[in-house]
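Section 5.1 Outputs to date
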Amino acid sequence: MQFRHLAGRVWLCPGNPDPEAVQAGVAVVADERGSVMIDAGQSPAHAREIQAALAAAGLPKPRWLVYTHHHWDHVWGACAWPGVEIVGHETAVMLLRAEAARPWSHHYLREQIRANPRLGPSFRARTRAVDSWEDFVVLPPTRTFTDVDELPVGVRLRHVGGGHAPDSTVVLVPDSGVMLLGDCFYPPPAHLRRPEDGLDLGLVRRLLDDTYHWYVSSHAEPMTLEQARSAAGA
């Protein structure tokens, strides 16, 4: 696992390409005034691997941790990021408080799969991701916004919502020409997905902007503006 430079201040650390791992990639906007971490990793163990990769790349420690949305593979590593301000859309607070109240354990995950087999892929991935529940806690954001926000280092946040998650947020780094999309245009999670659900390419078309040259989703390789236009049929 290592960070690679994309453009300007933006560095990427890819997730596990095996879809059964359900491991999202993360990004960091490196700044001597305080870096911004985009998503937390899928578990404390994953977060610690990300931290080691940050150190190996000589990148500054993050001051802010931004959630692109509340799904577990983007937020379960947050408890291993001490001293950061967690930023997310206001709707994530209620959603993550509900998640935090669940009695997470391997036993609980197995029980949930038995009760609803459609949860199997996600919940089995969680059992593999978390080796110990002793210090595990789900953390809601401590700084929230409604429509847009801007951090002191020029990183902008825009709520877009969509079918994948109601709190989906895109992260804009204008000076680097990079837009971090999270999972915003993906279909709903597998256990909620209907046969007619697919990628929300209309959302992608609305986000395309000539001032941004790179478009990065959490589970795929970065796309140039031209590639994004082609993929979205724009």
